[in-house]
Amino acid sequence: MIKKNCLKCGKDFDAEKDTAKYCSTSCRVMYNRNNPKPKKEVLDPAIQAQVIYNSVLEMIGRINYGQVPTLMDGSETNRVKMDEVGLWAEPKPSTKTFQQFMNELSELETEHEYRTKAAEIEASSLTRKQKDLLLINMRTSKF
Q1: Which DSSP category does 141 fall into?
Q2: Domain-embedded: residue 14
Q3: Does the N terminus or the C terminus of the chain have fewer Cβ atoms within 10 A?
Q4: Which of 98, 126, 124, 101 lies closest to 114, judged by CA?
Q5: Looking at residue 38, what DSSP letter applies?
């Protein structure tokens, strides 16, 4: 047991734990009532709403291929409209299979067709490895 002084009454007491500060529960309760902890600063609800709004817009922008819309600064001219958010601005990725792309590569003739097909492959929903294989195959064929 450790000898300590109570923070409330100042009496010496035998502490069972070395973290003890009070001789009894009643001293602990009375001390905490007389010495309340300072309250944490609470943000204005308008600021909280603004932070949430901006976070949602940023998440929507990330979902839509990295397009982050202009965030609101409180003025009417900078409020984002739903069509400006870009929910439907990007085309859906191609749903072609790896084999369909491979079959189309043999039909390409001009450099412009190759570049267009490369962009289509990049925008497709294929895995990175499949895209790389297709692009390498394109480079080693005609051009």
Answers
A1: T
A2: yes
A3: N
A4: 101
A5: P
> Residue 92 falls within a domain, yes or no?
no
Structural domain range at position 15: 2-34
- Residue 91 resides in a domain: no
**Which is it for the CA torsion 13, 19, 24, 30, positive or negative?**
positive
- Residue 45 pLDDT grade (very low, low, confident, very high; cuts 50, 70, 90): confident
Task: For residue 74, give every residue at least 6 positions away whose Cβ sits within 8 Å of its Cβ, in sequence order, or none.
Answer: 50
pLDDT in tens, 9-28: 999 999 888 899 999 999 99
Which residue, chain included where needed, has tokens 């067709």?
113
Is this prediction's pTM over 0.90? no
Q: What is the pLDDT of residues 48-75, one digit of tens each?
A: 888 888 888 777 766 655 444 444 444 4
User: Residue 2, SS3?
Assistant: strand
3-state secondary structure of 4: strand
Using DSSP, state whether 16 is helix, strand or coil: coil
In this structure, how many other beta carbons lie within 10 angstroms of the beta carbon of residue 47?
Answer: 9
